[in-house]
Amino acid sequence: MVTEDKLIRDKSIESFRRVMRPKVIGAYMLAEKLRPESLKFMFFFSSVSARYGNRGQADYAAANEVLNKLARQLNAQWPTRVASLNWGPWESVGGMVSRELARQFEKAGIHMISRPAGRAAFLDELLHGAKDDVEVIFGRPLNVGGSPSPQRGEGSQHESAQRGEISHRGALLNGHAKIDRLSDGRIEVARTLDPSFDVYLVDHQIDGRPVMPMAVGLELLAEIAAAGWPDLKLTAVRELRVLRGIMLENGPLTVHVSATPKITGDGATKVELKAETGGDKPHIHYTATAELASVAPSTPSVTRLKLHDGKPLGLTIEEAYEQWLFHGPLFAGIVEVEAVGQNGIIAKLAPSSPQRCLAESASPHWLIDPVVVDSGLQLLILWARTHLDMTPLPARLGCYHYFAPMPQGEIRCEVAVRHQTGNPSIHADIMFFDSAGILVGWMEDMEVTASKALNRLSQTRTGPAGVKS
Questions:
Q1: How does strand 233-242 pair with strand 177-181?
Q2: pLDDT(28) > 70
Q3: Regarding beta strands 233-242 and 209-210, do their DSSP bridges make them parallel or antiparallel, or are they unpaired?
Q4: Across-strand partners of 448?
Q5: How many other C-beta atoms are found inside a 10 Å radius of the C-beta of residue 375?
Q6: What is the mean pLDDT of the chain?
Q7: What single-letter DSSP state applies at residue 154?
Q8: Fewest beta carbons less than 10 Å away: which of 279, 327, 346, 371?
Q9: How far is residue 15 from each of residues 3, 12, 50, 106, 408, measured CA to CA in Å?
């Protein structure tokens, strides 16, 4: 490796050759002299600069891109796997990355790869990588434990000739999911729902059958948008429509999600999302539009909810889960109901973790937190049972405004309800605040459909109730 960083206008041909020669000549020499039939694998060590460029490193980026395309050519010609590993910057002492450059990387949000994590990631790729994964990008925090995992970890991006697997994986995407970027920029995700992995499904059943909660659908769509465009920040998920619930009838079920980007200017991107199941005649379950921007939105000042004729719930939390709600322990996120009024309900909620809801998850935190979101919807059930003696189910969410991840401490939830007598639809704004009173999430214009017949759902709940998540 040789680097002589300068702007293109300041580079000489001789300097350009000095940087190119070690990687290019060495790689072509190996390609010419090695006997491919005797190899188990061949990996080139390339750099993310080949894919994204780097100021002052046109020659270094070009040298690494030669490795990428040579690997693609040889992988197609040779029986063994040939891949080019595009590494982000490694932690080093006296090496390519100086302390000053490391500080610049940190400010830019570029994470250094530790030596143990890099070594483990290499072994993981060697043991579990597919032959069609030719250009592999390692960046962001590498999700690597003490030993290589059969599941691909967060931080590697695999590309074949037509499609590339996405690097960043949220909690729901870490297992049982295949994520691909198509040549036209769209993202396709196949996520298998399996109660043996998605253990939260056992605690969310309707008429004895596991149903994916709308809150999990929101989390899944948000994670896909964030994974597909990791350089941008999620700001909102708009017009989330529940067209048909996702119910598991006979074992695991694969949900297919497509994400289509639309550039809107000012560094913003809208991503149209659609979730469906089935083969030749698919059933569309969810549609939504995610919004991403280069800068996170500032937290707005909002008017706090003042209840009209606020009164205690009249049930303990344990009794509420036992008599009115159908959620099992993993979704029992309501800690305390402060009061219920004509215009809403106010309560305290507890956060959840992927480690409790999934059989395994390398991501320690949710992007949004589906249990907290679902607990906000549970408060709507408590309000509807109190005032209407009906149970509502979600139909549409106008917008989830994302300001920050849910705090790990107690969360205050304020549900402002709008309802007309005789109308089965209930509209509400559900706001989540941290202990300092800062708004972290806002479900604007949540629409649910209520029915007295749905009161039976509380009688079909499985497992003990009232256990804090």
A1: unpaired
A2: yes
A3: unpaired
A4: 394, 426
A5: 29
A6: 85
A7: T
A8: 279
A9: 9, 5, 18, 29, 52
Q: Which residues of 231-262 are buried (b: 16+ CB within 10 A; e: fewer)?
A: ebebbbbbebbbeebbbbeeeebebbbbbbbe
* pLDDT, position 260: 94
Q: How far apart are CA 181 and CA 271, in angstroms?
A: 13
- Which residue do the tokens 């719930």 mark? 313
What stretch of H or E contains 412? strand 411-418
> In the prediction, which pLDDT does 67 show?
94
Contact status, residue 215 vs residue 468, Cβ threshold 8 Å? no
Q: Work out whether strand 391-402 and strand 233-242 pair parallel, antiparallel, or are unpaired.
A: antiparallel
Whole-number Å distance between alpha carbons of 173 and 197: 12
Q: How far, in Å, CA of 341 to CA of 458, rounded?
A: 22
Residues 6+ apart with CB under 8 A from 77: 36
pLDDT exceeds 80 at position 280: no
Give the HSE-up count for residue 374: Cα atoms under 13 Å, Cβ half-sphere: 28
Residue 49 and residue 66: Cα distance in Å, rounded?
Answer: 12
User: 70 and 134 in contact (C-beta within 8 Å)?
Assistant: no
Quick one: average pLDDT of 376-391? 97
- The backbone torsions φ and ψ at residue 430, rounded to the nearest 5 degrees and listed phi first, read -115, 120
With beta carbons less than 8 A apart as the criterion, state whether 410 and 435 touch: yes
Q: DSSP alpha helices (H): ranges in 34-158?
A: 49-52, 58-77, 99-107, 115-128
Per DSSP, 405 falls in state P
Q: For Cα atoms 265, 268, 273, give the angle at the middle one, nearest 5 degrees.
A: 115
Q: How confident is the model at residue 468 (pLDDT cuts 50, 70, 90)?
A: very low
Largest distance between two CA atoms of the chain = 84
| 424-437 tens-digit pLDDT | 999 999 999 999 99
Question: What pTM, to 2 d.p., does this model score?
Answer: 0.65
CA dihedral of residues 356, 157, 222, 300 (deg, nearest 10) = 110
Please state, in angstroms and rounded to a whole number, the distance separating the CA atoms of residues 350 and 330. Answer: 11
Task: Report d(CA 371, CA 441) in Å as an integer.
Answer: 13
Beta-bridge mates of residue 425: 449
Determine the Cα–Cα distance for residues 134 and 199; give it in Å rounded to an integer: 34
The per-residue pLDDT for range 324-346, each reduced to its tens digit, is 999 999 999 999 999 999 999 99
